[in-house]
Amino acid sequence: MVSEQRPRRLNSRRTRSSALQQWTPAIAAAAILSAVVLVGALASKDSSSTDGPNESTTTIAQIVTPSSMVPVTKLPLTQTYGRGAAGPEIKLIQDRLIELKFDPGIPDGAFGQRTQQAVWAFEKLVMGVPRDQVTGKVTPEMWSRMQDPLVILPRRPDATPDHTEIYLPEQVLIVFHADTPVVVTHIASGTNEEWCEEVTISPGEQDNETGTEAIKKGVCGLSWTPGGIYKFYRMVVGRRESQLGGMYNPVYFNKGIAIHGAKEVPEFPASHGCIRIPMHISDYFQSLVAKGDQVFVFDGVKDPEAYGAQPPRFNWVDPSYTTTTTSTTTTAPAVTLPPTTLAPVTTPVTTSSTTTTTSTTTVSVPAA
Which CATH number fits domain 73-152: 1.10.1040.10, 3.40.50.12780, 1.10.101.10, 1.20.1440.230? Predict the structure, then answer.
């Protein structure tokens, strides 16, 4: 049975005795680092029990602020900044987000969509803001917190050396290398709603595995992202079309469900079940992961271990999707010619056929 011991705060591990005041800075730094690692291990043990409490009742010390012998000097922010702002303050914010692995794109001092998405991820993961209350704005309080020596720990440090954790309640994804974040990003997952659409399916995708050209068909599905434990098993470079919609540089981990780039990654779940990430992150995402790396999907209800490899609900044929072909024959009117000494001319009747195809669904397919 895994220990149910709760992780203790780092500050509680420090003693106030006079003897400790004689430590050298190097020894103190080593003790701090050991405490941070211990907190992460205890947090993982507390949350990884397959027969223990579910995720909603488990305490996870994922964001740690190590104590420091040297006070942190912070630069103040006098106002709140959001999308559309520009200037040296925005450049500082972008640089700090990059240091913490929240990728805002090129740090150009302009607060655009990419910076906003990075701020969303920081709001939800570090500030604890519910996903439906994010603002995408950096307040003086948030900037102060951003300047803390933050350490982001994995919830599953005993996974494969490189692994990915997806948090559906927060709509955040983290790729860890040796338990260290290499990218933290905002995502958009499934909406848990049924849908029916005409879809385009590229060759090699489900229902067009042996084809050489893309096909169209009417399907229905449930836009659900199941919680559980999976592994990356397939990567495709470039644009793909599937029953779940359009995908850019997809990395598959649960049947047809993949992590992929999308132009639209709003602040709410919006996909057919896949994990949408910003396009600029999808440009290099495949270089951060490998086939066989574990993927932990936390749904906020149970721990991933309680589900295992939970398959998605498969799509079904849209019963209202039909293709009807009709033919119409039109007879040209007779032509009367003026009198002539030549032999009479007979004008043949012309028959033309027009084929009309009607489909009940003609909408464009959104990204998965």
Answer: 1.10.101.10
